Automatic annotation (TrEMBL):
Source species taxonomy: Bacteria, Pseudomonadati, Bacteroidota, Bacteroidia, Bacteroidales
Keyword rRNA processing: no
Keyword Calcium: no
Similarity comment: family membership: Belongs to the LOG family.
Annotated organism of origin: Phocaeicola acetigenes
Name assigned to this protein: Cytokinin riboside 5'-monophosphate phosphoribohydrolase
Protein origin, superkingdom: Bacteria
Amino acid sequence: MNKIAVFCSASDYIDSVYTEKAAQFGAWMGENRKWLVYGGSNRGLMETVARAAKEKGAMIMGVVPTKLEERGMVSDLLDVTFHTVNLSDRKDIMLQEADVMVALPGGVGTLDEIFHVMAGGTIGYHDKKIIFYNVNGFWDDILHFLKGLEEQRFAHHPLNNYMQVANTFEELIQLLA
C-alpha cells in the first residue's frame, strides 16, 4: 500500500487534537515513503497532513476540483495535480489512484467520500477498504449507524468487507502494514 488516499476536514476551526493526529499520520507517511492522495486544499486537516507528509519526504498528489482553484484554496505542496471538474470526478480519481483510503475526522464532504468508496465496494467496482481513523471517538455515531444497517439487514454483506476501524494511531499503522 504505497498510495494512501486521505479524506478529511478542510476546516481551520477544529480542535487541535485532530490537527495533531493528522500531522502525526502525515509524518508517518513521509517517513515510510508513501504517496498522499488527497483533495489538494490548503486548509484544515488537508494542509496539515500534506505539510507533515511533505516535510518527511512523501510525494503529494492533489486531486483538485475547479471550485478550489477559483477560490485560491489549492495547496502549494503538490508534486502531482489532477484537475477535476467537480467532486464526483475527484472521488473517482482518488479511488482509482489510491491503494487504500483513510478517513480522518471531517464533515459532509468526507462523509460523501467515505460512502462513495463503500458503495462502490458493495457493488463490486473495487475491493479497496476505507479505514476510519476514530480519533477521540469522532466516528462513533457513524459506526453505530452502520452497525444498525447490518442489524436491520439493509446491508447485503458484512460492512467490515468494505471498512476497518482504527481507534489509535498504532492500530491505524497496523492496518496499513
